[in-house]
Amino acid sequence: MAPIITKKETVIIDTDPGIDDALAIIMSLLSPELDVRAITLTHGNASLDMIKRNAVTILNVVAEQRAFLGLPAQVPILAIGCASPITVGQPCVTATHFHGRDGLGEIYENNLYQAPPDWESQLLHAAKEVTKESFHAAQSAFQTTPRDAADEILFHLKNAPPLTITICAVGPLSNIALAYQRDPVTFGRAKRIMVMGGAINVPGNVTPSAEFNFGADPQAADIIMGTTKGFQHSPEGYSSRLALINDGKVAPSHVVVVPLDAADDGTVSKQDYEKYIVPLAKTTPVATFCNSFLIWTFDISSKLYGIDTLSVFDAYTILGTMDMMFDKGDKQGHEHYDAFWKYEYIDLRVESTGLYTQGMSCYDRRPHPSMSWPGIPNNVQVMLRGNGRRFNHFFLNRVFDAGIII
Ligand SMILES: [Ca+2]
């Protein structure tokens, strides 16, 4: 039975599609719990040019799927952001060894799937402001914008009631940090920043110590962790944030990190793929598209890591966002996510200059720390464990209509 939705979470998804990003975007846009106001693009899994082509392709697939399902169009704004990290001297790193040169398992050059022939012109902005009226009136798969990603994020935060928009950041944090640097007061109006990133008590996945998103722009990640100074997850903390916003001051951010520790068990197995996804090929737009790149992911996972599962980090983070949607940061009504996620509040930092440890998630592991680092500590809500089996069922049901009884 479809869920009865009484409240929607307004989200902006900052992303670098990317295989698990593609699955996260599709899941988000097929989820009635979410109002995806904007999708903002960052460098990451592949170069920004590849990311742009993938985003246009994904959004067109979703538009076709919604039409196929008889759902009304959902037309997010698509904004283009950083082509490189903000970390000084940091070269652009990609994860094309896993995601393919195009970021989607090399589907285009192998003629497995084609981007819309006019994908580049779809991205061109007609030099007119997006209005509330035109937003829902559009017929295309997405709206363009004259703003870059950071300004688009700030635009929505400024024009929505305070503490109502959640930012889901599932790529390197360049755009998010840039938004903070441009206007920290407006940035503080975000309800929550959900971040897929970091490796807390487990090894990294791009270096011995760094997870990809933190490693690809460590300074940006450290800046975002630093926005939590003074954050308190309490009724008083919530009121204090609102008061600061109303006074035009910088309010501390509620940053929730979903690191590899929690995200690694959110998987789809090759067996799931063969049972639930392969038979749907060429029957629905989403399944046709996903089948074009999923075989690559299982082949590459087997070759590189000797495993037959795909960790869908970014979609798992979107599920975390939905679990937390009723939480206002005031400790009222968050029993739902307490049931599925184990977390701690940590003074989390990200190493941005280390010779061997760039991108490492740092926190004080001493049993009785007095002061970890000088100054006010960060206060990041870090998910240390999720519920991968529940994610697996939710994801397969939501995206591929698998009919698994949860
Ligand atoms: Ca990503």
Protein architecture, described:
- By secondary structure, this protein is of the alpha/beta class.
- The protein has an eight-stranded mixed sheet, with helices on both faces. Strands 7-8 form a two-stranded antiparallel ribbon.
- Helix 1 runs parallel beside helix 15.
- Helix 2 links the parallel strand 2 (34-41) and strand 3 (77-80).
- Helix content is 39%, strand content 13%.
- Calcium ion binds at residues 15-16, 18, 21, 44-45, 170-171, 314.
Provide a concise account of the structure shown.
With 406 residues, the chain is of the alpha/beta class.
Describe this protein with a few key phrases.
alpha/beta, 406 residues, 13% strand, Inosine-uridine Nucleoside N-ribohydrolase, Chain A, binds calcium ion, two-stranded antiparallel ribbon, 8-stranded mixed beta sheet, globular, 39% helix, 12 strands
**Tally of DSSP β-strands:** 12
Query: What's the pLDDT, averaged over the residues?
Result: 92
Low-pLDDT stretches are: none
Helix content estimate: 25-40%
Name of the level-1 CATH class: Alpha Beta
Cα(first) to Cα(last) distance is 11 Å
Strand order of the largest sheet: 3-2-1-4-5-6-12-9
**How are helices and strands ordered from N to C?**
EHEHEHHHHEHHEHHHEHEHHEHHEEEEH
The computed structural class is alpha/beta
Instruction: Classify the fold: give the CATH topology.
Output: Inosine-uridine Nucleoside N-ribohydrolase, Chain A
Q: What bound compounds does this protein have?
A: calcium ion
Please tell me how large the radius of gyration is: 20 Å
Beta content comes to: 5-15%
Keywords: Glycosidase, Hydrolase
Organism: Phycomyces blakesleeanus (strain ATCC 8743b / DSM 1359 / FGSC 10004 / NBRC 33097 / NRRL 1555)
GO molecular function: purine nucleosidase activity
Protein name: Inosine/uridine-preferring nucleoside hydrolase domain-containing protein
